[in-house]
Amino acid sequence: MATPAAVVRPTRTLRKPLISGDELAKAFTFFFAALIIVVTFALVWQLWIGSSPAKEKFGFRFLTSSLWNPVTDEYGALPFIYGTLLTSFLALLISVPLGVGAAIYLSELASPRLSNTLTFLVELLAAVPSVIFGLIAIFSLVPLMRDYIEPALQNAFGSTPLFSGPAFGVGYLTAGMILAVMTFPFIISVSREALMAVPREQREAALALGATKWESTWQIVLPFAKLGILGSVFLGLARALGETMAVTMVIGNDPAIHASLLAPGYTIAAVIANEFTEASGKMYSSALVELGLVLFALTMLINGVAQLMIVLTTKKGSAKA
Amino acid sequence: MKMKFLASPVLLSFLLAAPVSAQSINAAGATFPAPLYQKWFGEYRAAHPSVSINYQAIGSGGGIKQLTDGTIDFGASDKPMSDQELAAVKVKPLHFPTVLGAVVIVYNVPGLKGTLQLSPASIAGIYLGQINKWSDPKIKAENPSASLPDKPILVVRRSDGSGTSFVFTDYLSQVSPEWKSKVGANSMVSWPTGLGQKGNDGVAGMVKQSPYSIGYVELLYAAQNKMTFASLKNADGKVVTPSLESVTAAAAASKGLDKDFRGSIVNAPGPTSYPISTYTWLLIPSRIPDAGKRKAITDFLAWMLKDGQKDAPGLSYAPLPKPVAAQVEKQIALIK
User: Fold this and answer.
1) CA–CA distance, A226 with A190 (Å, rounded to integer)
2) Separation between Cα atoms, residue B64 and residue B283, nearest integer Å
3) What is A78-281's CATH number, 1.10.3720.10, 2.120.10.80, 3.40.47.10, 1.10.150.20?
4) CA distance A257 to A254
5) Could you tell me the pTM of the whole model?
């Protein structure tokens, strides 16, 4: 009796060490996952602490005031929030139809060889640093906007305030255009993946029922890939909201709200990049940190809305099915 | 849905080992005199291999901030520190003027021949947004023979806080009561009009490529980029072209700096004075406990005030007037 027990014990400890490999892996990966949350919270905490002088002084007025005056130490975030949302909206307005259209062509219509080559180029475009886009914008897009596109828009819609004022080629619209160029590689690439993931049977069934290629794409494939496409749009939006260098080079950096799309404006990321290094006063730097907090909240809010939209659309889809 | 990472940024951190030397001094601040400072520190190191001064051109405000935080050995600024800023520093810094510079009004008006002449009132009017066309009667009256187009003026200014902006807004506050009450003088102000660009090169680039624009940059940038710049009517009512001579004349004719060498020389009297001129300063702590460091810094200051001054004109800076340099030299003894 004693001998077998003595034999069993060491084998047991061999078979079951203190921590198994699986548990070790679980602990490690949990640590990495938890790190993401810790970093995010630390970030918010820092922004919260750093902005406390400005929060105490201005309160909610910070979000509604459009005064930005470092001389009198009065700060308001409204022109920056407006500029950030407007340029991102303009960017998506241009890049979503363009990006989704291109993705449909690449996944449904183009030959596999062409599709792969073009996709490779598109992904290359996504890897270009933003300051390069800014340089291209300043030397090519700005003169193009100033000399051709903006005068043409003014001729066509001159009576509306949306296109009023002098056309200098620098402003909300130009910033929106360069953001569109920067976001659409994301939209094309992710939308194409989503469209490619639609099962072949879906297309074949539609075609077998007598649908044309276009009808099958528009009525079957596209709704099937809706979630992925929506995801690509929000990925693009996230890039547009936080983009700094390219925007600051072409938006004109004017902390005021203008109705005209041709007028200069400002975004949150751009003002932080421009002014933080020289913000010597305590209130000044704290107001810039609070702008960072506002941008963070804005991104969270938009991501929340995106999640909600995804949940709602999937429910609707499954109810139909 | 499986998201694909399109661009995975590769973070590379380069650890640059500092060269071993007996005395390594860190300084940071103004970008405007940076080309000259780099030359000075390089030359000084060639002559004194045991002393190396590292200068980072991060901007005047950044220099003041880092000096206040005590992260650098000395700072540099185009804007003298205010009493409030001085009070915030543990060890009181001393102001050492190094050279003089000028802010010039650059413009790009296609078809305009000859040099544009501007009065203080029109410059203030343009930057207040009250004069918004090149054909404005005020500009016309100052340039009767020029063919000025009926085009809107594109006003370009700095988007980042800057010593250059401080000198320019300081000048506008001196010549325009309306500017003083509405906007004021600072390295970053609430601009009534115009669009902002980052850095002297940003403003210079924007003006250069945009027809019908106007902007302000340091003389060096205008000269390097071969830009056209305006002649200004000075305090005596004379039209003066920005140059090293007219900047030196402004320094000589102004009422001078305060006892602690702070102060501004914009809108100086005298028939040949260029009105938007300024000193630029090194900010040296008045107490440096480390004897080796103290000796290295004071030796450099003495060198800078004598031999260093000869490098200034070659890089479009005006050297200190002799009497000023002599007075500044006495201040070196105050560093304990």
Assistant:
1) 12
2) 8
3) 1.10.3720.10
4) 9
5) 0.83
Q: Is the ipTM of this complex over 0.90?
A: no
Candidate from A123, A264, A277 with C-beta closest to B59: A277
pLDDT at A311: 83
Are B189 and A71 an interchain contact pair (Cβ–Cβ within 8 Å)? yes
Q: Do B191 and A186 touch (CB under 8 A)?
A: no
What domains are there in chain B, each with its CATH number?
25-101+278-334 (3.40.190.10), 113-276 (3.40.190.10)
Residue spans of the domains in chain A: they are 78-281
CA angle A72, A74, A80 (to 5 degrees): 130
Residue A321, pLDDT > 90, answer no
DSSP letters, B40-78, are HHHHHHHH-TTEEEEEEE--HHHHHHHHHHT-SSEEEES
Please judge whether B4 and A190 are an interchain contact, meaning their C-beta atoms are less than 8 angstroms apart: yes
pLDDT in tens, B40-76: 999 999 988 888 999 998 888 888 888 988 899 999 9
- Using a CB–CB cut-off of 8 Å, the residues of A that contact B are 67-72, 123, 126-127, 138-139, 142-143, 146, 166, 168-171, 185-186, 189-190, 193-194, 197, 227-228, 231, 235, 248-249, 252-255, 264, 270, 274-275, 277-280
